[in-house]
Structures are given as C-alpha cells and as structure tokens.
Write a structure and sequence with these properties.
- The chain has a 7-stranded antiparallel sheet with strand order 1-2-3-4-7-5-6. It has a two-stranded antiparallel ribbon with strand order 8-9. The chain has a two-stranded antiparallel ribbon with strand order 10-11.
- Helix content is 41%, strand content 19%.
- By secondary structure, the chain is an alpha+beta fold.
- The chain has 2 domains: 8-189, no CATH class; 193-306, no CATH class.
- Mean pLDDT is 86; it is low at 224-238.
- The protein has helices spanning 8-18, 22-42, 86-90, 112-115, 137-158, 163-167, 171-180, 192-209, 213-222, 241-250, 298-306, and strands at 47-51, 58-62, 65-70, 74-80, 97-102, 105-109, 127-133, 228-231, 235-238, 275-278, 293-296.
C-alpha cells in the first residue's frame, strides 16, 4: 500500500487498519500525543513523527532514536528500566514482551529479569522496549507513562535527529491527531543551519570511509590538532572524523581495554565494530588528538563512562 505521509486520509486508513477499535484508538493516540507534546516542550526541533510510505508503521522518534512504534496489532514503547513499576516488571499474565539488545543479538522475553541487564538501545543507558497488543493498552499504557517520559527526556537531550529523519516527518499525522483528538500540536521547528552542518559531515564521513590508513595518516599530519566548537541551536564539540577513523583502523579490530576482538562486524562498513573514546573528554578540556583517543568495544566504552 503506497502512502502519502502528508495526507490526513492516508493516515486515517493506516490507523484504522492497525487499530480497528475506536476506543482503543483513542487510548493509544492520546498516549502518543501526550508524548509528542512533552518532547516538544523540551526541544521543539529534535523529534519527528514518521508514517512509513509503505503503510507498515508509524514511528515517533526522539533525537536519533525511536520512542514509540505503532504497527498492525502491536505497539512498542521505549522506557527506562529504573522507572518501571513492579506491576510491569512482574508481568504475571505475560501480556508484555520485553525487548533488548546484546551485541549483535536481539533479545526478547516475557521475563523482565532475563534481559534487564542489557539495554535496548546502546546510545540510551537503562533503555528497554516493551511490546503489547492493542487490546492490552488500556491496562498498561498508564503504567508506562513515567518511564516512557524519562526515556524521552534523556533521549531528546543526549541524541540528535538526523536529516533523513527530518525529511520523513509526516505533517499528515499531526493534522490527523489535531483534528480527531481536538489537539493543537505544533510540527517540529527544524533549524536549516543544523541541516547544512549535517550534510557537510555526511559528505566528510563518506569520504573518509574510502581512504586507506596511509592516506588518513597523511591528512592528520596536515591538520591542526585541535577540536572545534560550533553553535547551532546548542554548543557542540565537533570531533575530527579522520582522527576517529584512524584510531579505529589502527586498533585492527581489537579493544584497547579488554584486548578482545570487536563483538561483531558493522553492517554499514563491514569492519569490526569498535567505538572511539576520548580518554579526557572534550567537555572537560581534553584534546581531539590521537594520544587522547582509544578504540573500545561497546562494553568497555560504557565501563569507561561509568567508572
């Protein structure tokens, strides 16, 4: 089914296909709307609502991660584990399916304890996904409100929406929610300068992936070894992509701390997955230089930040 993501009528068709019951529709869409309003109150240009152009889903994204996903018969809510009530964690009737991620493996269980040691999203500490059928939403969505909002609050402050996500924002859903729920939700207020910076970084990212390690060394020698600051809608430290790539390549797939091979191969680069860490963070005055950078596996990287 081809969908115009800016069409109110197409939005209506998809929602009615996913959730035929009107009462359940209101429960789910009010939960979604409240989440949007909350996110918008924190950061009005760091979220989007995406109606899949093939009609397979509706996804509410916060910064660079997803937060709520509606599909046929099932809703997925991202939460922070620390704020889940005991009633949800116990899941006595196995109405909820908990989802998480361990290295290259997706994890699913009706038993919260089985996957509580792992995060659903590596960029969001303490995160967990919770799936349920729509007919259970009246029972559980109110119980998830606080933990969902804590997830939104952390994600919107610590991750950044990408250009492709901005381009996929669906004004048709916002118009549908405003019309059918008698709401007044604003669309995101995206900053054009952010987009131009992103395009430049994407181009540079693609270029450095194609370079040999010898060419990377040559570029690094010619560059001034200092980090930059930029002010867009916030102040950020801009990391030297060539340096990061060089440090990752030089590690040859081995984590600096645990001395073990990278846990999996990256789908995007087809190379061992390691993350580059600044020994002394840029925010604390550390320099963006090779001597201040190490390549780590995700577990050791997380350990460095929480030691």
């Amino acid at each position: 089914m081809a969908i115009n993501r800016n069409s109110v009528e197409d939005t209506k068709k998809v929602i009615e296909l996913f959730i035929p019951n009107e009462n359940i529709q209101k429960i789910v869409l009010n939960f979604l709307t409240d989440a949007i309003v909350y996110a918008n109150s924190i950061h009005p240009n760091n979220w989007n609502l995406n109606l899949n152009i093939n009609g397979k889903g509706i996804q509410f994204n916060i910064g660079g991660v997803y937060s709520i996903r509606l599909s046929k018969d099932i809703v997925l809510i991202l939460c922070l584990k620390s704020y889940l009530p005991n009633f949800v964690q116990e899941n006595k009737h196995k109405d909820l399916l908990f989802t998480s991620y361990n290295g290259g493996n997706d994890m699913k269980s009706y038993n919260f304890k089985n996957i509580s040691a792992y995060d659903s999203l590596k960029s969001i500490p303490d995160s967990i996904g919770i799936k349920m059928f729509y007919f259970d939403t009246a029972k559980y969505l109110p119980k998830l409100k606080i933990s969902s909002r804590k997830f939104i609050e952390y994600s919107i402050k610590n991750t950044t929406i990408r250009l492709n996500m901005k381009n996929a924002h669906s004004v048709g859903i916002i118009a549908y929610l405003n019309k059918n729920l008698n709401k007044n939700i604003d669309n995101p207020k995206y900053n054009l300068l952010d987009d131009e910076v992103f395009k430049y970084e994407l181009k540079e990212q693609n270029q450095k992936n194609k370079l040999s390690i010898e060419k990377l060394e040559d570029i690094i020698k010619k560059q001034v070894m200092s980090y930059q600051k930029r002010e867009v809608t916030r102040v950020e430290y801009v990391r030297n992509l060539y340096l990061s790539e060089y440090v990752r390549r030089r590690a040859n797939g081995i984590c600096k701390d645990c001395k073990q091979p990278a846990p999996f191969i990256s789908k995007s680069t087809q190379e061992p997955y390691l993350e580059v860490h600044h020994i002394k963070s840029l925010a604390q005055g550390g320099e963006d230089i090779i001597e201040n950078m190490v390549a780590l596996c995700p577990n050791c990287h997380r350990k460095r930040h929480y030691e």
